Amino acid sequence: MDRLHGRNRVRGMKQICFVAGYNFRGFFKNPKVILTFLMGIVLCYFLSSRIMVVIDQCGTSVQAVEPFLWTFGDATSILLSSVLLLLIFSDLPLMSSATPYYLYRTTKKRWLLGQMLYVVCVVSLYMGFLLITTVLLCMKNSYIGNLWSETAAMLGYSKLGEELSVPSTVKVMESITPYECMLGVMGLIFLYILCLSFLILAGNLLLGQNRGMIAGLLFSLYGFLLEPKVLAAIFHVSKYEMYKINRLIGWISPLSHVTYAKHSFGYDKMPTVFQSCLVFFVLLLLLTGISMGALKKYSFRFLGETS
Prior knowledge:
single chain, mainly alpha, two-stranded parallel sheet, 70% helix, globular
């Protein structure tokens, strides 16, 4: 009996992988994919240009992953990078001529898990692409040692970083190494984009095709509007009590949870990186459950017929 269950489990995993793999057919020839990755390059270039100006003028070097940390170290840049993927994921779950075959040969649950695995693979590919792009843009003046650079010290310990809107903070440099910080930043952005993608998937299954796109845009807008200055004006909070607003937004804003520098490093009451990851994991489980429930009532349409 155990052997039979083991075989069914392996068979199920293979079917899930086959569904995800089929979605990649023609992936790199898809105009939406090409446009998304090209816009990713443009985004990285414009956001990294602030760093390249400092490097050229001061004649200093940077640690290899620092440009990535500074490029995607604030909420606005993370929001822009995640919105680009809405173009690829707008039509989730993907339907093709092979969909009836997979639905016949496997279960709806495994088919949906295959769609989710496809999303995970695409987001991983996209995150790796952004990292490599930022590294290549500044590789002329970079080194691979796991130590913060002189450029990072200049940006963090002076007003230069604030003037250039570069999120280089002292509390981050004093508590963690560049490569460890990179893993934390990539992990948070990865989970945030997964939540956004799974929300689109759940919305399309629950509300109908393309309705999930609206849900994804509203989710992004919700995080964008949770700006400390806006809430301070609404609640008439004084300048000396802004820490209360910052703390509140730190816990309720998804963009605050995904921004590495806005976490607790041992001396404030902001969420820790682990707690933010836990929030995203709970949200992913919730969206997965909603998608599974919506799939039971979802009507598949092929060649004008309903099955």
